[in-house]
Amino acid sequence: MSVSVLSPSRLLGGISGLLQVACLLGLFLLLLKAAQLYLHRRGLLRALKQFPSPPSHWLFGHNQEFQKDQELQWTMKWVQKLPSAFPHWLWGTKVRMLLYDPDYIKMVLGRSDPKSNGSYRFLAPWIGQGLLLLDGQTWFQHRRMLTPAFHYDILKPYVGLMANSVRVMLDKLEELIGQDSPVEIFQHVSLMTLDTIMKCAFSHQGSIQLDRNSQSYIQAIGDLNNLVFCRIRNAFHQNDTIYRLTPAGRWAHRACQIAHQHTDQVIKLRKAHLREEGELEKVRRRRHLDFLDILLFTKTENGSSLPDEDLRAEVDTFMFAGHDTTASSISWILYALAKNPKHQQKCREEIQSLLGDGAPITWDHLDQMPYTTMCIKEALRLYPPVPSVGRELSKPITFPDGRSLPKGTIVVLYIYALHHNPKVWPNPEVFDPSRFAPSSARHSHAFLPFSGGSRNCIGKQFAMIELKVAVALTLLRFKLLPDPTRVPTPLPTVVLKSKNGIHLHLRKLL
User: Fold this and answer.
1) InterPro entries under this entry (predicted)?
2) Which of the four CATH numbers 3.30.565.10, 1.10.630.10, 3.40.50.1000, 3.20.20.140 does domain 58-508 have?
3) Which pLDDT tens digit goes with each residue over 232-283?
């Protein structure tokens, strides 16, 4: 009986042959992918040929054209040279059209194109599929469901709650200014707006501003803003699995956990309160419900309650949008007034004429401060809280000048660039509240601090009330001066922030 044994040399030869085949197959697939990318890029260049582009690298796009954190400066340089729009190449075949002409933006907002999945999906682990990320019929249903939460009968009593939160912040700031050093105001304003949204929309009792645990939520939201912004621009972080393995991915996961723990606790406390004797019937008898109560009382078509996943997504979305965007707005408004003392004093005199005798601010006062409102709007023009929004064209579009874009194009409605476009706003860097005088005329889509169209910010009236209350009470208490040694550097993350904070000198008024 003989035994056949495979010799080592024949075994190695077989392995070597398999490796050669694998290498050849891998090289073929690589060349095939390169050819596909080349053809895809050629197709994009043909589709966008009507729109001149700043010089770009075929692989690295425009990333080499501007230094880190200099995107706004680079963009504005080309806004002045290229009318209406231009392609911004991120890398390879990744391109998005930046639009900053009001006619172009009006056409896009008048359609029902979905949010651009390539960028907005990075927000999903944080805020879930809530109103910001939903599309189609589901978005419409949620929008209709939540609109009653912003009825003016609901908003009226919020003025007093907002004023109380602002006073707590001002008291804290008054304790700090004894050191005669500038104060970084964004962190204080952010705690105040979180306190406000917790009281107004989520029926929270007590003061968030005096709770140290709230600081971790504020920090997590700030981290997520930066992490999402950086991920969108990093070619190696587009894949979810790869991103989770990176330090940034693990950091984002931890920040999401902190944010979710906060919102889960909010929902848990409200449910527990509604289980108390008599509380449920008391809430049901209300003509209008608060934001969270609407979610908790909503029934789906089959009669069941809103799924926990949908409930938390809407709470996460509004918790973020309701405090972070308003914190950005208020901080930049105060900075703009600090830089423009004459306008600041004129606002103060207007407010003193209404509240100078110590009267509490009320709903009726909000329409009696026209100059302050003009200054608020001009600051929102210079520093829009959401610097851009994205859409993915569901069908081709042709603009009024005859240029067109094909289906599938990612368009960015660059609100910051629109607000600083010299063809739309003469001398755009000058703070000029008269632009918003009642007699002034402007394009319907030249000023979009809360976006526009059917998907405009659902909470824009809530936000404007809070801005007026915060600005009015702050100017009654303090004179604002900028810190010339630390000029804020705007950074267009999900929300407009400052790279180096917003530092102001505060002088207590007698």
Assistant:
1) Cyt_P450, Cyt_P450_CS, Cyt_P450_E_grp-I, Cyt_P450_sf, Cytochrome_P450_Monoox
2) 1.10.630.10
3) 888 899 999 999 999 999 999 999 999 999 999 999 998 888 888 677 777 7
